[in-house]
């Protein structure tokens, strides 16, 4: 059963000062703007906007993932939100200036980040 046509995840993870994080790059405000734009467009019954924890590429924040396509938007700024809702959600076209089309680079960065987290957890005795 399909609950919504789109699900927008905004990483709002906040890390210690001097460590790049989406939360530190204004992602909370960006998430609220996505909600506002979805409501303004009358799409609240078709689009869910949620916060998420870290999705991997912190130095590119604020990061947004849109499903069902699994599209990553990186370095999203407040000014990008309306364009993403209008062009991607309403129009079905990916916003190319915020989406890295090279999925291999994105996967590589996410895998590198995941490996660092796994090593830190192992060092801390959590694995």
CATH class category: Alpha Beta
Q: What about the largest sheet?
A: 4 strands, mixed
Structural class: alpha+beta
Query: Largest beta sheet: what is the strand line-up?
Result: 2-1-3-4
Our estimate of the beta-strand percent is 5-15%
CATH topology: Glutaredoxin
The pLDDT mean sits at 86
User: N-to-C terminal Cα separation, in Å?
Assistant: 36 Å
Q: H/E element string?
A: EHEEEHH
Runs in which pLDDT lies below 50 for 5 or more consecutive residues are: none
Any idea what the CATH superfamily is called?
A: Glutaredoxin
**How many structural domains can be distinguished in the coordinates?**
1
DSSP strand count: 4
Quick gist of this model?
Helix content is 38%, strand content 15%. The chain is an alpha+beta fold. Helix 1 crosses helix 2 (78-90).
């Amino acid at each position: 059963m399909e609950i919504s046509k789109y699900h927008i995840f905004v990483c709002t993870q906040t890390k210690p000062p001097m460590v790049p994080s989406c939360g530190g790059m204004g992602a909370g405000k960006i998430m609220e703007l996505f909600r506002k734009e979805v409501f303004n467009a009358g799409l609240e019954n078709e689009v869910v906007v949620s916060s998420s924890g870290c999705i991997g590429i912190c130095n590119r924040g604020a990061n947004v993932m849109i499903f069902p396509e699994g599209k990553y938007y990186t370095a999203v700024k407040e000014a990008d939100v309306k364009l993403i809702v209008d062009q991607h959600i309403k129009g079905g076209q990916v916003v190319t200036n915020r989406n890295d089309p090279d999925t291999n680079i994105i996967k590589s960065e996410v895998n590198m980040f995941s490996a660092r987290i796994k090593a830190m957890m192992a060092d801390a005795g959590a694995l």
